[in-house]
Write a structure and sequence with these properties.
heterodimer; A: 317 residues; alpha+beta; eight-stranded antiparallel beta sheet; two-stranded antiparallel ribbon; elongated; B: 135 residues; 20% helix; binds zinc ion
């Protein structure tokens, strides 16, 4: 009972090699659920620590600049006491403009360095997969590992472009439009259940980017970008024939089914789509909408996919 | 006199539910079930217990996971997953899953040795499965 309620503290993460997961915007490994959960937490906490540090640094930069700026005004009355003091406001005044440039450059550099080292959007990934792995933890074979490969890069990049096509609209002012379709496999992996069923999963982001050139009410031409994203989660499950019998009625509309010598093989999918499921939360100007789904909801929906596969079989008595 | 070992009376698993294989070391102060240390929780860790349960907290009782989850009013969002409380979170989620989904469950004990862990040595090799999702 010793570990009850324990939380990992920040000190445990400093200097851990987790940063590489961010740097490479992904990882590929096999770990037990607990180790994965620890790894996810470490990634999130490390980023938090680095972000705190970054903010402090930027604050300091601007604090120094502000000091120079205010100093110019504070020191100018000193000139009235003795002309010797004139050197103070003059020097400080001369530093204001270069100081501003240096502060802007340093802020930009600090932000850029942080962005380069730490992937955005890791928190949702950590939350979703920690929840999912916790739910299946007891159904895995003892000490069995989950293989997981993750790609946390941006979806809207050249290599993820699947196709693009022309887009037309009847709205007033419309000049021309284009639609680009992107797809990125966020993660995929596999694990072995206690009953020797094999689970394969894949989680994908599909994004449609709409580029619209239109004439505004003032007559000026402008380009608008709109996004629509959906997230299919696919489960393939191989259930051993020596342990289960196939039920007579398998709904092949929802479930794809094949069999080999040793397994019944099922494939089911659940597409997470904010616009369909929760239209108020949908924002066409956001590239990604994955964070709109609650962790509980996401993990239960995915668990239900495994449930759906199991509903096709009965253990052999 | 030989000391008789008692099995933990809690269960594990979401789909293939089976009895916990650990030896019981603790008796739940509420339901008197024998449980192992994995399935035992300190009542003083309960956040906001109801009136009727405050006594367990006050007495520093040890509870089985079932009783603990029943008393623990925390929302799943507030439970840290990298801790022993992960199993409390799992129980809470399983309850929700049972309530919200038509649920398939196989009780291992109904099927004898079918789910016996030691029945086969199994090699988990996923290297040739990469292309499956390509379509
Ligand atoms: Zn109890
Ligand atoms: Zn136990």
């Amino acid at each position: 009972m010793d570990r009850q309620g324990n939380e990992l503290n920040k000190e445990q993460y400093i200097g851990a090699p987790i940063e590489r997961a961010h740097l490479h915007r992904g990882f590929n490994s096999k770990k037990t659920p607990v180790k994965w959960i620890r790894f996810f937490r470490a990634c999130v906490v490390q980023r938090e620590i680095a972000e705190e540090k970054k903010k402090k640094k930027i604050k300091k930069i601007w604090f120094i600049f502000l000091g120079i700026f205010i100093g110019t005004f504070i020191t100018s009355p000193l000139t009235n006491i003795s002309p010797v003091f004139k050197i103070l406001p003059t020097t400080l005044g001369m530093l204001v403009f270069p100081g501003l440039i240096v502060a802007i450059i340093m802020t930009y550099r600090t932000n850029k360095k942080f962005k380069k080292n730490f992937a955005e959007g890791f928190d949702f990934f950590a939350d979703y997969f920690s929840a999912l792995f916790t739910l299946i933890e007891e159904d895995l074979q003892v000490e069995s590992k989950i293989a997981l490969e993750a790609n946390l890069k941006h979806t809207i990049t050249k290599e993820n472009l699947i196709k693009n096509e022309a887009y037309t609209s009847e709205t007033s002012g419309f000049i021309k439009g284009e639609e680009e379709h992107y797809e990125r496999v966020i993660s995929k992996g596999s694990c072995l259940f206690y009953d020797e069923s094999l689970i394969f999963f894949q989680f994908t982001e599909r994004t449609r980017k709409r580029i619209i050139l239109k004439r505004g009410s003032s007559g000026k031409r402008k380009t608008k970008y709109k996004y629509r994203a959906a997230y299919p989660f696919t489960i393939k499950m191989k259930i051993p024939k020596n342990k289960y019998q196939l039920n007579p009625s398998v709904d092949t509309k929802e479930i794809s089914f094949v069999e080999d010598d040793a397994y019944y093989v099922f494939k089911v999918s659940r597409k997470f789509d904010v616009k369909k499921e929760n239209p108020e939360q949908y924002n066409p100007y956001n590239e990604s909408s994955i964070t709109a789904f609650a962790v509980d909801y996401f993990s239960l929906e995915v668990i239900n996919l495994i449930n759906t596969c199991y509903s096709c079989v009965t253990p052999s008595a | 006199m030989e000391e008789k070992t008692t099995r933990c009376e809690e269960f594990t698993g979401l789909f293939v539910v089976r009895n916990c294989e650990n030896n019981a070391t603790i008796v739940c102060d509420k339901c008197k079930k024998n449980v192992c240390s994995t399935h035992a929780f300190k009542a003083n860790q309960i956040v906001n217990p109801g009136k009727e349960h405050a006594v367990y907290k006050k007495n520093n009782s040890i509870l089985c996971i079932s009783c603990f989850v029943e008393f623990d009013a925390r929302l799943t969002n507030d439970i840290e997953l990298y801790s022993k409380d992960r199993s409390v979170w799992r129980r809470k989620m399983i309850h929700r899953f049972h309530a919200e989904y038509p649920y398939m469950v196989f009780l291992a004990e109904d099927y004898g040795s079918l789910f016996d862990r030691s029945s086969t040595v199994f090699l988990h090799d996923d290297s040739d499965e990469g292309s499956y999702f390509d379509s």
